[in-house]
Amino acid sequence: MQPPQSLWWSTLENPVTARPALGRHLDVDVAIIGGGFTGLWTARELKRRDPHLRICVLEKSVCGFGASGRNGGWASALFPLSSDVLVRRYGRETFTHQRQLLEEAVAGLGTDAKADGIDAHFFQGGTLTFARSEVQVERLRASVTSSHDLGSNDQDVAWLGADEAAERANVQGALGAMYTPHCARIHPARLVRGLSDVNEKLGVAIYENTAVTRILPGRQGRQPEVVTVGASVHADFVVRATEGFTPTLPGQRRDVAPLYSLMIASEPLSDAFWDEVGFSRYETFADDRHLIIYGQRTNDNRFAFGGRGAPYHFGSTVEQRFDLNNKVFELLETTLRELFPSMAGAITHQWGGPLAMPRDLSPSVVVDYHTGLASAGGYTGDGVVLSHVAATALADLLTKPDVQTAHTRLPFVQHHSKPWEVEPLRWLGINIGLGLAKWADTSEDRHGVESRASAWFERLTGSSGD
Ligand SMILES: Cc1cc2nc3c(=O)[nH]c(=O)nc-3n(C[C@H](O)[C@H](O)[C@H](O)COP(=O)(O)OP(=O)(O)OC[C@H]3O[C@@H](n4cnc5c(N)ncnc54)[C@H](O)[C@@H]3O)c2cc1C
Predict the structure, then answer these.
(1) How far apart are CA 455 and CA 452, in angstroms?
(2) Which of 71, 200, 242, 404 is the most exposed, having the fewest neighbouring CB atoms within 10 Å of its CB?
(3) Does residue 363 have its Cβ closer than 6 Å to ligand 1?
(4) Does pLDDT of 450 surpass 50?
(5) Which helix (H) or strand (E) holds 286?
(6) What share of the chain is helix, strand, coil (3-state, %, to 5)?
(7) For 222-259, how does the pLDDT look when each residue is reduced to its tens digit (9 = 90+)?
C-alpha cells in the first residue's frame, strides 16, 4: 500500500521507508494496533510513565498512513457534539470540565511535541470562522452568545465585525467573523512521523506493513491475542487505534461509519498576496456553511484547504480509490478561489482519507479489564487534539485503574456508542444527511434564509441529544 500523496507527505524532510514487518511471535505488555496519533501518543505516554513497559505498534502500512498524516492540521479544542447537547447529556459541570481540558490540551500538544524535539510547525494563532451571509452572521453571533452563557468569555470566543475581521484576513464577502484562540496550525505528517521516531528511540517496537487480521479477547486467565498475517502477539492489553479503518476488522463493520474528507493545496503564494490577504498569525479558517470547510496558511505560504462532501460508501467500505473524488476537488478549488479571488497560484496537491463517525457522534476511550481489550477513537473531524487527550486517558486507565483523574472523568471515557444501523439504512441515513447539508447551503445562498437541514442531519446521526 502506497503512502498518501498529500502535501504533507511530499514536504517531509526525509523520504518514508517502511520499518520491517512482524515476522515472529511476540510477548509484550501492551500491543497497539494502528500507527496514527492515537496509537503513537498512547505508546509515548505509557513509556513516559514506565520506560520498562514492553510495547509494540502494529501498522498495516506505515506510521501516518491514515488520517493523522493527511488531515487539515487544525489542532483545535473542538468536539464533534455541540455544547448544548453536551450540557443536556452530562450537565454543566462536566461540560465545563471537558471544555477547559480541551482548551488547555491545544497548547499541551505543542509543548509535548516540542519537548520531544518534533518541529510540527505548531503555531497557536486561533481560528476565524467567517460569516458570508446575513444568516451566517446571525448564527455565529448566536453561537458566541451561547458560549458566553455557558461560561466562556471574550478571551475564549468573540465576534469580530467586518473591519476587525478584515484586519486579520481578507475573505471575499465577509461580514464578520467568530474568533477563538483555542486552535493551532500544524503540519500533521511532521508530527506523526516525528512521534514514530521518538517512540522507536524509547524502545517501542514498531512493525510496519503488518496488517492485523483478528483480535482475540483474553478470557479465563488467558491474555488477549492479536493475529497478523504470519505471526501473533500476546499482551496484557491490546489497544485498537484504527479510526476510519475500524470497519475493515472482523465483527466491527457497524462500530463507526467511515466518512471521507478531501483536501487540496496551492503552490507557495507570493509575499504580496499574503500582505493583501493576511493570516499573519497563521489563523486556521472556515466559514459557517453546513457542509464543513477548513483551511490553513502553511509554513511555506500555501493554502491547505479541505472539506466534506464525498459520499459515504455502502457497507462502510474503505478503499484507497475513495481518497480521490474529482467533483469534490473541483468544488474545493472553486470555493477557495471564491474566498480569495486574487489567488492566482495553481493547485498542486489533491488527497483525502477516511475519518470515523460514531452513531451518537461521541468519541470513546474504552478499557475492558476482563478481556484486556482497549480502544480509542471516533473523533469525526476533530481528532488531532482529541487523540492526544484520549491517549492520556488510556494511559491513566491502563496504569492506575483505581484512580479517577481529570482525563478519566471526561464523559467520553468508558463510553460506548450504539452500533450503526444495518444496510441499506446506514447508507440512506448518512447520504441523505450529507445531501441535506449541501441543499441547506445552496438554499441559504439563493434565498438568504436558514434551513432546518442541519437539524435534520443532527437528528439522523443522533447528535441532537438523547
Ligand atoms: C482529510 C482529513 C482532514 C482532517 N482534518 C482534521 C483537522 O484539521 N483537525 C482535526 O482535529 N482532525 C482532522 N481530521 C481527523 C483526524 O485526522 C483524525 O481524527 C486523527 O488523525 C485520527 O488519528 P488515529 O490515530 O486515531 O487514526 P489514523 O491516523 O487513521 O490511524 C489509524 C491507523 O491504523 C492503521 N490500521 C488500520 N487497520 C489496521 C489493521 N488491520 N492492522 C494494522 N493497522 C491498521 C491505519 O493504516 C492507520 O495508520 C481529518 C481527517 C481527514 C481524513
Answers:
(1) 5
(2) 404
(3) no
(4) no
(5) strand 284-287
(6) 35, 25, 40
(7) 999 999 988 999 999 999 999 999 999 999 999 999 99
What DSSP state is assigned to residue 413?
Answer: B
Q: What are the tens digits of pLDDT across the range 183-195? A: 999 999 999 999 9
Q: Judge if the beta carbon of residue 191 lies within 6 A of ligand 1.
A: no
Pairing of strands 55-58, 26-33: parallel
Query: Letter for the amino acid at 302?
Result: R
User: What's the CA-to-centroid distance between 41 and ligand 1, angstroms?
Assistant: 13
DSSP state of 105: H
* Ligand 1 geometric centre to CA of 181 (Å): 24
Give me the torsion for CA of 363, 367, 372, 374, rounded to 10°.
Answer: 20
For 163, the grid coordinates are 473591519
> Are the C-beta atoms of residues 354 and 67 closer than 8 Å to each other?
yes
CA atoms of 393 and 388, how far apart (whole Å): 9
Beta pairing partners, 131: 176
Contacts 24+ apart (CB under 8 A), 444-451: 444/133, 444/135, 444/136, 444/289, 445/133, 448/133, 448/134, 448/135, 449/135, 450/135, 450/138, 450/139
pLDDT of 325 over the 50 cut = yes
| Cβ–Cβ under 8 Å, residues 329 and 336 | no
Does ligand 1 have an atom closer than 6 angstroms to the CB of 358? no
| Atom number, ligand 1, closest to the C-alpha of residue 356 | 19
* Residue whose C-alpha is closest to residue 86's, from 442, 307, 411: 411
Residue 62: Cβ within 10 Å count: 23
The secondary element (H helix, E strand) that includes residue 88 is helix 83-90
**Average pLDDT, rounded, for the chain:** 93
Query: 387 CB less than 6 Å from ligand 1?
Result: yes
